[in-house]
Amino acid sequence: MATMRQVAARAGVSAKTVSRVVNNDPHVLPETRTRVTEALRELRYVPNALARTFRAGGAPVLGVAVPDIADPFFALVAKAVEDVAAAHDTSVVVSSLGYDPERERGALESLLRRPLSGLVVAPTSPDQGHLARWTARMPVVFVDRPPRGLEADTITGDDHGGARMATAHLIGHGHRHIAFVGDSPQVPTTADRLAGHRAALAEAGLVARDELVAFRDSDDAAPGRLVQRLARSSPPPTAVLSADARTTMALVPELAGTSWAVVAFGDFPMADMLSPALTVVDQDPAALGRLAAERVVERLGAPEGSALRRTVLPVRLVERQSCRAEAHAAGLFPFSAPELDTSVSRVEPPGGAASRRCPDASA
Amino acid sequence: MATMRQVAARAGVSAKTVSRVVNNDPHVLPETRTRVTEALRELRYVPNALARTFRAGGAPVLGVAVPDIADPFFALVAKAVEDVAAAHDTSVVVSSLGYDPERERGALESLLRRPLSGLVVAPTSPDQGHLARWTARMPVVFVDRPPRGLEADTITGDDHGGARMATAHLIGHGHRHIAFVGDSPQVPTTADRLAGHRAALAEAGLVARDELVAFRDSDDAAPGRLVQRLARSSPPPTAVLSADARTTMALVPELAGTSWAVVAFGDFPMADMLSPALTVVDQDPAALGRLAAERVVERLGAPEGSALRRTVLPVRLVERQSCRAEAHAAGLFPFSAPELDTSVSRVEPPGGAASRRCPDASA
DNA sequence: GGCGCGCATGTCATCGGTGTCATGGCGTCT
DNA sequence: AGACGCCATGACACCGATGACATGCGCGCC
What residues does the HTH lacI-type domain cover (chains A, B) (predicted)? Predict the structure, then answer.
């Protein structure tokens, strides 16, 4: 914990000279340098990074706040942010917010008490109005989920379009009774996906049956129960759209007992190794994180920058096996459903959708 | 970007009074307070967190450096560290080091240039001697992998014991030719697991066949090739021990074409949903991270603390299906192997091994 | 009326490193 | 020889907030 001045005193020089030695300034006599170096070693001097940083006017630090850093989706988001940050010599402070709105606020505020230059946040709480105080001071970009009670830059996946595509895909396989299972209708992401699902049903002239929609935050939320309840409805579904990866992971074990076709929103490691391999709507979390971080960096560079933007990233349907359980296998259709699928080719262009942005929609 | 003095000038008071208002010091006349508050708002004053922190002598910040934050294993480690940190009002800076030794060093050094109070690191490079400079200044705890070229606190899983147990388990199922696949023999973790594997073979009086050991960092490392090469050996293996989760994930698709039994080192999400469900040696990454973070916090509290410790956490065998492919299914044994398995009950005590520590071994 | 106390506010120093400029010695060029 | 310039080094200010202590006013009490 020795300071530069202490070292200076010991070496019989001024603090400035010590500074020069520490920073390899060539304008120091070899003999002086030796003396200082020795004092440095004797006192085990290590420069105080904080003082340096402070003097330098602050180093860039990017905050990443996600519900759970151990969730593969958010881990990929965080990693992408980190990659961008590293390329700009910026460090990254992460904070797991959890899924409890009150904890979220507390965690965010203690994160924001630190010296941050920008923030990428994926909130779950119903209101982020309290962040207004900070959006003035630093770039705050919302990722995966839009802010509520606040205007801010946003990078999200195409929830509505993705769910619509997924459901249309199942309809293309002949399914007429398609369940929807998600975490909570409060989460805007889930709400959008449900809307997309319903839009696809409507476009196909199918009725949206409320009893085929289930949420894991409801009273009777054990995954097994949810599946049982869906199976008991009449007619029972022949397919299910799982609205997010956490839900999917909870659901997969229960689905083994059914012959339902499945499309899941959100890819995850090993989804292709399940039996059957899961057909998923992939959101490209890395692109989400990368764009969010780049947006922050951009705003850092151009202080009173441009208007706020909401970017929606295309999603892509990764067709594997789980959507193939044909509707007639459940005895409802005497024929194999024709392949009506226009959605895949429509939304997944050859170049790989993930690398392109949708045109921005300015607010 | 307004400073306190600017606000003070505007409000016609001293900076100190502004400070008092900002910090809710009661000794300020209501009228003054109002004037200051107004100036505060007009200038959009936000306290400079860095200056505050600096003046306060620094806030605790814990660094976490892992090869890849998006790897489920390290994500869990990081999350556990974060939880501990949050409980101590400490923020967490993460850095993904990558798997390239040179990049690792660069990333570590740029992480350490920041004001950190402690570090939890899982290195992959063959030498961390360059960290010696920092271990003097702050607690550095190695997690999952021990340091090389340096002495430091270490929290690791019981690699040797776990691999020995896994191989013994396979032997118990009647297997006599057991392959070992890992990332690289350079990684101490992998080396220890290979040693454990060999120890189990030796204990059972089996020969360790070098051609049944394969690494992904070798020349011909595509997982498909590795599996083919193993299958071509004679006699071919009837079981395989995968030495780490990344290897396992790469291997699983290739293993589908074989009837080999599998035990994998390292659990991961959905491992239980594969077909067959993977039998794994679970390392409890959360406990690893938690203990490492607690060790750092502890050392932070007791500056010139106790001797350096190496803690080895027990691992536990999670028996699922993939170890059940009996040896005779490959036509090598005319009888169903007797269940010799003592290893499971020996190493997985009722209370759950993960919650206990092995006695520390002082260095 | 004088003494003292409480309260609002200000001044100054400080955290630790570093940028800016000053100083003084010595070598060199004309 | 005088002027100039380079070099090693130092003194001092400063980044921005805040703790310690000082000042000065007003009020109450003996």
Answer: 2-56
Nearest protein residue to the C1' atom of D11, measured from CA: A14
Residues in A 6-65 whose C-beta is less than 7 A from nucleic strand D are 12-17, 20, 26-29, 31-33, 54-55, 57
Residues of A in contact with B78 (CB under 8 A): 69-70, 94
Q: Which residue has the higher pLDDT, A55 or B344?
A: A55
Whether residues B322 and B201 fall in one domain: yes
Distance from CA of A297 to the nearest CA of B (A): 18
The more confident residue out of B361 and A264 is: A264
Identify whether A41 is part of a domain: yes
Q: Is the CB of B361 under 7 A from strand D?
A: no
Say whether residue A69 is in contact with chain B using an 8 A CB cutoff. yes
Q: In this structure, what CATH number is given to the domain that contains residue A48?
A: 1.10.260.40
A285 touches A330 (CB < 8 A)? no
CATH number at residue A206: 3.40.50.2300
pLDDT (tens digit per residue) in A77-111: 999 999 999 999 999 999 999 999 889 999 998 99
Q: Is B41 on the interface with A (CB under 8 A)?
A: no
Q: Do B201 and B178 touch, CB atoms closer than 8 A?
A: yes
Please state which of the ranges A48-62, A169-183, A317-331, B94-108 shows the lowest mean pLDDT. Answer: A317-331
Q: Residue A101 CA to nucleotide C8 C1', Å?
A: 41
- CB B53 under 7 Å to nucleic chain D: no
When divided into structural domains, chain A yields a total of 3
Task: For residue A193, give its domain range.
Answer: 159-284+314-349
Instruction: Verify whether the Cβ–Cβ distance B114 to A271 is below 8 Å.
Output: no
Name every chain B residue with its beta carbon within 8 A of the beta carbon of A136.
Answer: 44, 46
Q: Which nucleotides of C are covered by protein (CB under 7 A)?
A: 7-12, 14-20
Query: How many angstroms is C1' of C21 away from CA of A22?
Result: 21
Please answer yes or no on whether B274 and A273 come within 8 Å at the CB atom: yes
Cross-chain residue pair B69–A82, CB shorter than 8 Å: yes
**Is the CB of residue B23 inside 7 Å of nucleic acid strand D?**
yes
Together in a domain, B309 and B319: no
Q: What is the pLDDT of residue A170?
A: 96
pLDDT of A26 above 50: yes
Same domain, A305 and A321: no
**pLDDT the model gives residue B199:** 98
Same domain, A190 and A319: yes
Distance B271 CA to D26 C1' (A): 78
Q: Please list the rounded mean pLDDT of every run of 10 residues in chain B (363 residues).
A: 91 94 93 94 92 92 96 95 95 94 91 92 92 86 94 95 97 95 92 97 95 89 89 93 94 88 93 89 96 94 77 95 64 35 31 36 36
Whether the pLDDT of residue A349 is over 70: the answer is: no
The alpha carbon of residue B296 is apart from the nearest alpha carbon of chain A, in Å, by 18
- pLDDT level of residue A340 (50, 70, 90 thresholds): very low
User: CB of A47 under 7 A from strand C?
Assistant: yes
